[in-house]
Design goal:
This is LANO_0H18426g1_1. This protein is an all-alpha fold and 681 residues long. It has helices spanning 3-13, 19-36, 43-52, 58-67, 77-84, 102-115, 123-127, 129-135, 139-152, 160-170, 178-192, 196-205, 209-217, 222-234, 240-255, 264-271, 282-287, 298-302, 307-313, 321-338, 348-363, 377-403, 405-408, 410-430, 438-457, 462-478, 485-491, 495-503, 507-525, 531-550, 564-572, 596-609, 622-632, 644-655, 662-671, 673-676, and strands spanning 274-275, 292-293, 558-559, 562-563. The protein folds into three domains: 1-88 and 100-121 and 235-257, no CATH class; 275-481; 492-681, no CATH class. The chain is built from 36 helices and four strands. Strands 1-2 form a two-stranded parallel sheet.
Length: 681
């Protein structure tokens, strides 16, 4: 036995391990597993441990399966049966069944797909085909079980009822990708037993060709394969070349029946090619997507005002010749404009569509615009052309709409503002320097002033908050650029906007402010000589940390420009149920209006994830928590949480995985040293 096996044995059998000991064992396993692998005799006990233990978080278990579950020999048949026993959900017939967390179930199926090539006997999948076929109905397992069914299917397993069942599930709503999974399995059935009925069902699914192609190629995690092949090679179990030969066999089996990119197929596609300019509806775009030819006439595209063409261009590879021709054409038009020419093609629709298509396309690359020191020449040129026109349209449009806001309604006005901000976001992301254009700056400040004005009357209006969120996203692009001090100072949000947003009951608003105070840190550096701006930013940070976490209301001073003396007197006149005037539950994430409900939900999720027997349903205060712990003890509740502080930290950790609340956690991790270490755990 090596270090890895010893540590695993100790981890599986140790019932009284502390958190520090578990962390040390996992670290040792992670350090040595790429050299030793894991003995196959320990895999079944390890699977039981990962499914049952509550000492390790679900995210850590997922990481362990992906990075450390590297067998050092062939996987035994009973491992497949062990995993099958852990799959599935509760039903009316099994209401008391112990359900493994769904994320763990999915990871175990994913792991079986990756180790399929080195089983003791792959016939075990044929023997258990009916069970896998039934589990395939579960959306969270469907993708990975599709591969297992595909590889293990035989002629005798192709039944008419299975064909009908696949088509039925594929056409059902509510699944993430059932249509594609069903089509792939039906293609496999058709290969094994050629049949018109199967072909008819495949056509009836109307599966998107690109999605099907993605599913064929989406089975493998190359990093896992590389690590596992090294383990097997080091231990002389299987040479790397032979390992990848087995992988290629499975890949070729998956790609069998996929349209070829050469020969007669390409000739047919060329003969049936559809011009992009002829595709004027989304229905036509979907029907002829694979047949659309990339246009050579740039001017015909950008002057057509055809939105469908921009949808298609957003999917075109960023490195093709088309975008270079767009750049050259823009240079030519810019030269003509300098000489006094006109731009009949540059309007909001055309430039907005072209910018969106180009930006979405470039975002598919490994580096986004935010991480590139010098933006690509093409986008600089397009932005330079677009900015004066969009600026003029933007300012006039916003001012007119604001004057007519009573007729338009608040909803329509802010929808219009978000449309404008979306264009500015694309411009600032593509070429941040362009945002120092005074006209564009004026448009942004116009919207900011309207937001502040409306927040005074409607502090929790979601239309206003959603627009403010987009403003902050634009400011995130400023943070990567060196701005002049006068621009930097004026781009920041007003004190009134920040304070109203934080004190709002809308969780989105306080999340936006947390994001803003993180992003504005870099912008503040450009205002190093402006002491007033720096002090204001520091005051915002101090107030928000106090409001969400520190809860320091003793002594003098203010919070959100409200005297603390007044706050204390007001709080002392309120009734907290089980807490008196000295309660420490006035603020913090668990009690402020915007986050109290999400904190309660986080506690419930924590209890469900760790299969707690008792549930903490009292108010989230230190006194009620201590009373609850004394009553139920550690055994029936979460034994990893022994204090109210640890509960708050756990709630914060849960929030960072939710889109609406994650910036609150990021803010506290960034500005409070006492919480900095928890971000990594």
């Amino acid at each position: 036995m090596g270090i890895v096996d010893d540590c695993l044995q100790f981890l599986i059998e140790g019932s009284n391990l502390t958190t520090a000991q578990i962390h040390e064992l996992l670290t040792k396993i992670n350090t040595n597993v790429n050299n030793e692998g894991i003995s196959t005799r320990l895999i079944n006990p390890l699977i039981d441990f990962l499914c049952d233990t509550s000492f390790i978080s679900v995210s850590t278990k997922i990481y362990f399966i992906r990075e450390a579950l590297l067998p050092n020999d062939r996987i035994p048949r009973d491992t497949v049966h062990r995993i099958i026993g852990r799959l599935g959900i509760r039903s009316l017939s099994t209401p008391f069944r112990k359900e493994t967390p769904r994320a763990i179930q999915s990871e175990l199926c994913r792991w079986l797909v990756h180790v399929y090539i080195y089983m003791e006997d792959v016939a075990v999948y044929e023997e258990t085909f009916s069970i896998w076929f039934q589990l395939w109905q579960l959306d969270f397992l469907q993708k990975w079980i599709t591969y297992l069914l595909f590889w293990s299917a035989t002629t005798s397993l192709v039944k008419p009822w299975r064909i009908k069942f696949l088509a039925l599930v594929g056409n059902k709503g509510g699944y993430s990708n059932a249509k594609t999974s069903a089509a792939l399995l039906l293609e496999r059935f058709s290969t094994l037993v050629p049949n018109r009925a199967i072909s008819a069902e495949i056509l009836g699914l109307k599966c998107n060709v690109r999605r099907l192609s993605t599913l064929r190629r989406g089975a493998w995690d190359e990093a896992f394969l590389a690590n596992w092949s090294c383990v097997l090679d080091i231990l002389n179990r299987l040479q790397r070349s032979a390992f990848y030969d087995l992988i290629e066999e499975l890949k070729s089996l998956l790609s069998f029946g996929e349209p070829k990119k050469e020969g007669s197929t390409m000739t047919t596609r060329r003969n049936n090619a559809v011009s992009l300019n002829d595709v004027d509806t989304l229905e036509k775009l979907a029907q002829s997507f694979e047949l659309i030819s990339i246009p050579k006439d740039i001017e015909a595209v950008v002057t057509s005002r055809n939105r469908c063409s921009f949808v298609f261009l957003a999917t075109v590879d960023a490195g093709i010749e088309f975008w270079k021709r767009v750049s050259q054409w823009c240079v030519l038009q810019q030269g003509l404009y300098t000489l006094g020419g006109e731009f009949p093609f540059i309007d909001k629709l055309t430039m907005g569509g072209l910018l969106s298509a180009y930006t979405l396309n470039r975002d598919k690359d490994s580096q986004s615009f935010c991480s590139v020191k010098e933006p690509p020449t093409e986008i600089e040129i397009i932005c330079n052309l677009a900015s004066p026109v969009l600026s003029d349209i933007t300012c006039k449009r916003i001012t007119f709409a604001r004057n007519k806001v009573r007729d338009l309604g608040n909803c329509r006005f802010y929808s219009m503002c978000r449309s404008v901000l979306a264009k500015l976001y694309i411009l600032s992301k593509g070429a941040p320097g362009i945002m120092e254009s005074p006209l564009l700056f004026e448009a942004l400040n116009h919207i900011k002033s309207f937001i502040t004005e409306d927040m005074r009357e409607r502090p929790s209006d979601r239309h206003v908050t959603a627009t403010l969120r987009l403003v902050v996203r634009i400011l995130s692009n400023f943070s990567s650029v060196k701005l002049r001090e006068d621009f930097a100072a004026s781009v920041l949000l007003s004190k009134e906007t920040v304070n109203i947003s934080i004190l709002s009951t809308d969780p989105l608003a306080i999340g936006v402010m947390s994001e803003y105070l993180i992003l504005s840190k870099n912008i503040i550096q450009a205002c190093s000589k402006n002491q007033e701006v720096i002090e204001l930013h520091n005051a915002h940070v101090l107030d928000l940390t106090n409001y969400m976490w520190r809860n320091k209301v003793a002594g003098g001073g203010t919070i959100f420009e409200i005297p603390l003396v007044f706050v204390r007197r007001m709080m002392q006149n309120l009734t907290f149920g089980d807490s008196g005037p000295e309660s420490k539950s006035w603020f913090t994430v668990v009690n402020i209006p915007a986050l109290s409900f999400s904190s309660r939900c986080a506690v419930n999720k924590l209890e469900n994830a760790l299969s707690s027997k008792s549930h903490f349903s009292n108010v989230l205060t230190e006194k009620s928590f201590n009373d609850f712990k004394r009553k139920v003890g550690d055994i029936s509740w979460l034994d990893t949480i022994s204090s109210f502080y640890e509960l708050k930290v756990a709630i914060l950790g849960m929030m960072r995985h939710q889109e609406m609340y994650k910036n609150n956690s990021r803010f506290l991790y960034a500005y409070l040293r006492s919480l900095a270490d928890f971000e990594k755990s």
